[in-house]
Amino acid sequence: MTWILYATQGCHLCENATLLLQQLAMARFVDWYHQDIIDLAQEETERLGLFIPVLKIKHEEHHWPFSLVELIQWHQEQHQTAVQIPSEILKSTD
User: Fold this and answer.
1) Which InterPro entries does the UniProt entry name for this protein (predicted)?
2) Which residue from 4, 50, 75, 91 could staple onto 56, CB 3.0 to 4.6 Å apart?
3) What is the pLDDT of residue 86?
Protein backbone atom coordinates (compact mmCIF):
# COMPACT_ATOMS: atom_id res chain seq x y z
CA MET A 1 0.00 0.00 0.00
CA THR A 2 1.41 3.37 -1.02
CA TRP A 3 0.78 6.38 1.18
CA ILE A 4 0.05 9.77 -0.36
CA LEU A 5 1.27 13.05 1.11
CA TYR A 6 -0.89 15.90 -0.13
CA ALA A 7 1.18 19.05 0.03
CA THR A 8 2.34 22.01 -2.03
CA GLN A 9 5.46 24.07 -2.66
CA GLY A 10 6.36 26.77 -0.18
CA CYS A 11 4.60 25.05 2.71
CA HIS A 12 7.04 24.66 5.60
CA LEU A 13 4.74 22.22 7.40
CA CYS A 14 4.67 20.11 4.23
CA GLU A 15 8.47 20.10 4.24
CA ASN A 16 8.40 18.86 7.86
CA ALA A 17 6.00 16.06 6.93
CA THR A 18 8.20 15.15 3.96
CA LEU A 19 11.23 14.82 6.24
CA LEU A 20 9.33 12.46 8.55
CA LEU A 21 8.24 10.27 5.65
CA GLN A 22 11.78 10.23 4.27
CA GLN A 23 13.04 9.01 7.65
CA LEU A 24 10.46 6.26 7.66
CA ALA A 25 11.23 5.28 4.06
CA MET A 26 14.97 5.06 4.84
CA ALA A 27 14.11 2.27 7.24
CA ARG A 28 12.12 0.70 4.36
CA PHE A 29 8.91 0.71 6.26
CA VAL A 30 6.67 2.40 3.72
CA ASP A 31 6.30 3.52 0.13
CA TRP A 32 4.91 7.00 -0.30
CA TYR A 33 4.72 9.80 -2.79
CA HIS A 34 4.14 13.52 -2.79
CA GLN A 35 1.00 14.78 -4.53
CA ASP A 36 0.96 18.54 -5.08
CA ILE A 37 -2.59 19.71 -4.44
CA ILE A 38 -2.26 22.28 -7.22
CA ASP A 39 -2.48 19.38 -9.70
CA LEU A 40 -5.81 18.16 -8.32
CA ALA A 41 -9.33 19.22 -9.24
CA GLN A 42 -10.18 22.67 -7.87
CA GLU A 43 -12.63 21.26 -5.33
CA GLU A 44 -9.99 18.92 -3.90
CA THR A 45 -7.34 21.64 -3.95
CA GLU A 46 -9.60 23.93 -1.94
CA ARG A 47 -10.60 21.20 0.52
CA LEU A 48 -7.09 19.88 1.15
CA GLY A 49 -5.57 23.36 1.10
CA LEU A 50 -7.23 24.04 4.44
CA PHE A 51 -5.42 21.15 6.10
CA ILE A 52 -2.10 20.47 4.32
CA PRO A 53 -0.03 18.55 4.84
CA VAL A 54 -2.46 15.65 4.70
CA LEU A 55 -1.33 12.04 4.68
CA LYS A 56 -3.68 9.52 3.08
CA ILE A 57 -3.35 5.92 4.18
CA LYS A 58 -5.90 3.64 2.54
CA HIS A 59 -9.12 5.63 2.87
CA GLU A 60 -8.10 7.62 5.95
CA GLU A 61 -6.75 11.16 5.89
CA HIS A 62 -4.44 12.27 8.68
CA HIS A 63 -4.04 16.02 9.09
CA TRP A 64 -0.92 17.72 10.39
CA PRO A 65 0.52 17.59 12.98
CA PHE A 66 1.70 14.01 13.09
CA SER A 67 4.92 12.55 14.41
CA LEU A 68 7.32 9.82 13.36
CA VAL A 69 6.00 7.66 16.18
CA GLU A 70 2.45 8.07 14.84
CA LEU A 71 3.63 7.18 11.33
CA ILE A 72 5.16 3.98 12.70
CA GLN A 73 1.97 3.19 14.62
CA TRP A 74 -0.18 3.72 11.51
CA HIS A 75 2.13 1.44 9.57
CA GLN A 76 1.85 -1.24 12.25
CA GLU A 77 -1.93 -0.95 12.25
CA GLN A 78 -1.98 -1.24 8.48
CA HIS A 79 0.09 -4.39 8.50
CA GLN A 80 -0.95 -5.63 11.94
CA THR A 81 2.64 -6.49 12.71
CA ALA A 82 5.22 -5.30 15.15
CA VAL A 83 8.08 -3.45 13.53
CA GLN A 84 11.54 -3.11 14.98
CA ILE A 85 12.32 0.59 15.02
CA PRO A 86 15.99 1.37 14.38
CA SER A 87 17.57 3.32 17.22
CA GLU A 88 18.61 6.10 14.79
CA ILE A 89 14.96 6.88 14.12
CA LEU A 90 14.05 6.89 17.78
CA LYS A 91 16.95 9.23 18.57
CA SER A 92 15.85 11.66 15.85
CA THR A 93 12.44 12.14 17.55
CA ASP A 94 13.97 13.39 20.82
Assistant:
1) Glutaredoxin-like, Thioredoxin-like_sf
2) 4
3) 65
